[in-house]
Amino acid sequence: MFGRKKFKYTDLPPGDRIRKLVEEYLQEFLEQNGFKLLKSELTFKRKIGDFTQEIYFPKSRHNFGKTNVDFWIILSVNSRTYVKWHKKQYGFEPMNDYIHSWYDKHINEWKTEFREVHYDLARFDNDKLMKDIKRNLENIGIPLLNEVTDWERASDYMISKDEFAYIAKIFDFYIIANKIDKATKSLILAEKCYANYENVPKERFEEIKLRKDYLQQR
């Protein structure tokens, strides 16, 4: 016989229900890994050196009663230190303070049978779904964030993924880490990468030129 799906806290509004389950299944585990849950939003944060790491649980604006209780997960790393450094070195602030970010659905290693477009507490067994999220955070999410805990490792990670759309940040992070050779090499790798594509945005080449000029002025 098939067991009945287990749905929990169905008397709560969608947002409160999601928070209640996140607190019940994930808060202790994440706190053991150095994260603290914010009161203002469903986000866990931890500080590592110059970096702030976040695990955020956005809710669908279409959530309604017991029929739609959708949410997803975003992992991110940011640093206000980078904004200040960029302003000092180049005379203007960067587009944002993000070091990197990931959406759970776009992480290839993040496997689950409890998600279609998003996780949905109205559709899937709540106990199994939340335990599956914990498993993915433990085996995929936290190790991924651990890959980006300092400037050099952040750039190394992007190089390993051929993420040369972020060449400006790759270079800058190496410079902040005082890895001049790696920074110089990253520009060469980016130019070789761009040679394989048509219609590379002109901004990428402008970013490379700015950083070559920076190297000459050091």
Number of domains: 2
Q: What is the makeup of the main sheet?
A: 5 strands, antiparallel
Uncertain stretches: none
The helix tally amounts to 8
Taken in chain order, the helices and strands follow as HHEEEEEHEEHHHHH
Task: Calculate Rg over CA atoms.
Answer: 21 Å
**Subunit arrangement of the protein:** single chain
From the spread of the alpha carbons, the general shape counts as elongated
Give me the secondary-structure category.
Answer: alpha+beta
Strand order of the largest sheet: 1-2-3-5-6
Q: Mean pLDDT, nearest integer?
A: 96
Percentage of residues in strands: 5-15%
Distance between the termini: 72 Å
Query: How many DSSP-defined strands?
Result: 7
Query: Helical percent range?
Result: 40-55%
Report on the architecture of this protein.
The protein is α+β, with helices and mostly antiparallel strands and 218 residues long. It folds into two domains: 14-146, no CATH class; 151-217. The protein has helices spanning 14-25, 27-32, 80-90, 126-146, 151-160, 167-176, 180-194, 202-217; strands spanning 36-37, 43-48, 51-56, 70-71, 74-78, 98-103, 119-120. It has a five-stranded antiparallel β-sheet. A hairpin with a 5-residue loop joins strand 1 and strand 2. It is elongated.
